[in-house]
């Protein structure tokens, strides 16, 4: 005799695997959900610090040190600072009697300057610093005070002029009495006590 199929048993057999599948799906969702780290749009964990971009806020300056206004670590180098006061005098050299400052450093004239007018630009000044002072330069031993004048440079600084020539130092002169700048480029010469350039070689 043929048996009829039990409808209740058939439903139970179908339902069991479906329930197991539902449980597995739910477990997988929980494992990848609230119990793990959440991720932002960029794919970085939200509970970890974000890496700062190179264009981010500059690092904090060390204590007692202020960053420059433009955000750079170092401020621009300062301009040539005038001495509080200075005098000029004459000294004997292989070129004859020449002008020096009160420390014995040789002074030069620049042939591209016009009488009483300096034409040495910023690149030039880096090699040939001007004789500048915050006060009037005074005439010392062997000089003619009537030949000594000054050019107003602003900010209270004055460049000394002797005769027609604004006065300069040469960075290549290391000690008092050096005349290493004499004749350089055919434009730089020491200055005599009468205010004229000495163009002879040492």
Strand content: 15-25%
User: What is the overall silhouette?
Assistant: globular
Fraction of residues in helix? 10-25%
- Terminal residue distance: 140 Å
Question: What is the succession of H and E elements?
Answer: HEEEHEEEEEEE
Care to count the β-strands?
Answer: 10
Provide the residue-averaged pLDDT.
73
Class derived from helix and strand content: alpha+beta
Uncertain regions: pLDDT < 50 for 5+ in a row? 24-62, 64-78
| Largest sheet features | 4 strands, antiparallel
Radius of gyration: 42 Å
Query: What is the helix tally?
Result: 2
Question: How would you portray this structure in words?
Answer:
- The chain is an alpha+beta fold and 202 residues long.
- It is built from two helices and ten strands.
- The strands form three sheets. Strands 4, 6, 7 and 8 form a four-stranded antiparallel β-sheet that branches. Strands 2-1-5 form a three-stranded mixed β-sheet, with no helix packed on it. A three-stranded antiparallel β-sheet has the order 3-9-10, with no helix packed on it.
- The radius of gyration is 42 Å and the shape is globular.
- The protein starts with 6 loop residues before the first helix and ends with a strand.
């Amino acid at each position: 005799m043929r048996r009829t199929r039990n409808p209740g048993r058939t439903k139970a057999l179908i339902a069991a695997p479906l329930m197991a599948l539902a449980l597995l799906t739910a477990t997988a969702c929980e494992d990848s959900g609230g119990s793990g780290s959440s991720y932002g749009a960029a794919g970085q964990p939200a509970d970890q610090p974000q890496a700062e971009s190179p264009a981010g806020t500059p690092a904090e300056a060390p204590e007692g040190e202020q960053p420059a206004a433009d955000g750079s670590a170092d401020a621009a180098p300062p301009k040539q600072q005038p001495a509080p006061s200075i005098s000029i005098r004459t000294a004997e050299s292989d070129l004859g009697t020449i002008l020096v400052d009160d420390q014995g450093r040789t002074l030069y004239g620049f042939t591209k300057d016009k009488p009483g007018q300096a034409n040495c630009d910023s690149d030039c000044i880096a090699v040939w610093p001007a004789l500048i002072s915050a006060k009037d330069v005074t005439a010392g031993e062997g000089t003619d005070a009537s030949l000594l004048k000054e050019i107003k440079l602003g900010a209270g600084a004055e460049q000394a002029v002797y005769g027609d020539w604004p006065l300069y130092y040469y960075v290549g002169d290391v000690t008092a009495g050096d005349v290493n700048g004499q004749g350089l480029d055919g434009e730089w010469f020491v200055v005599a006590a009468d205010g004229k350039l000495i163009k002879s070689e040492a």
